[in-house]
Design brief:
Length: 299
């Protein structure tokens, strides 16, 4: 386990020393690095989850992913030691419901739309947060460039359904709310504990959507365990990183840096899957990097 892994493990399992660990970790890793690490984990988890859709069911995979992640965080953090007041339960529950709904809507969207279309539409959520949070010329210019970069990467086509578009729009709106509520949870006393409790509440709230697929739990028991494990890659690591980042930077900059997610996904494809880069992908990644440099390090 490398330095990054050791710091993450110590941070997740040690409540008594969390402030010390968080300070050490935060001072040594720039937000961009955190986002890239989270994006790699998130897309690996999404790829694993997508492979289960046909056998397990989209809604059941989404539900198990969120609940599985919640169980892992609750056990690692020993959240039962915290009081309801410390967890800021009302905001934590709302945050978890939004997070779970975002996951569910995106999974349903990519079941009805090409992935590129869904990513491009969903990205409207963080764009709105970034645009409304800082209206300076430099911020708006960099946001336009980053958005165009995402469109180049997304490879939007005319395929898909109207239902898919609506689901992707819903995922984008929930993504915007996730950023706003996540910032509040990160800066409260709840932090990672709030993430765990919130995901459990959110997972239970969306669980009725999975009732039609519940029979798959008996037909494919091993795949159900795999679906639960996708929560570690897809939720625990990336959303845990989000909570660390949101303690350090504003939700406006956080929203802007979301453009690193599709860029990272393309780079993973180049390196890990040996996929040949298209001109559009190279241009898109270049535009996103330029936009981040243009905006600079303002919080």
């Amino acid at each position: 386990m490398g330095c990054f892994g050791r710091l993450r493990y110590r941070y997740l399992v040690s409540f008594d020393r969390s402030k010390i660990i968080n300070s050490e970790f935060a001072s040594s890793a720039p937000p961009e690095f955190l986002f890239i690490c989270g994006a790699i984990s998130q897309y690996l988890g999404a790829a694993l989850a997508f492979s289960l859709f046909d056998d397990v069911g989209t809604t059941l995979v989404a539900t198990l992913r969120v609940i599985g992640a919640a169980i892992v965080l609750i056990l690692l953090r020993r959240i039962w030691r915290r009081s309801m007041k410390e967890l800021d339960l009302a905001w934590t529950a709302l945050f978890g419901i939004v997070l779970a709904g975002m996951n569910l809507c995106f999974y349903l969207a990519i079941d009805n739309l090409p992935l590129g279309n869904a990513v491009a539409i969903e990205f409207l959520g963080p764009i709105a947060v970034a645009a409304l949070g800082n209206r300076s010329f430099k911020n708006l210019a960099s946001l336009v460039i980053a958005s165009l970069g995402v469109l180049f990467l997304a490879q939007v086509t005319s395929e898909g359904t109207f239902t898919g578009v609506l689901l992707a729009l819903a995922a984008g709106a929930l993504w915007a709310l996730y950023i706003i509520l996540g910032s509040r949870v990160a800066r409260s006393g709840a932090h990672l504990d709030g993430l765990g409790v919130g995901m459990l509440i959110g997972g239970l709230m969306i669980s009725p959507t999975a009732l039609a697929s519940i029979g798959n739990a008996f037909e494919y028991p091993l795949l159900i365990l795999v679906a639960l494990s996708t929560g570690i890659l897809g939720n625990v690591i990336p959303y845990g990183i989000d909570q660390i980042a949101l303690q350090r930077i504003t939700k406006t900059r956080f929203a802007f840096l979301q453009s690193l997610l599709p860029a990272t996904a393309s780079c993973v494809g180049f390196v890990a899957l040996q996929q040949r880069a298209t001109i559009n992908e190279v241009v898109g990644i270049g535009m996103i990097i330029f936009a981040i440099l243009l905006r600079g390090k303002e919080t």
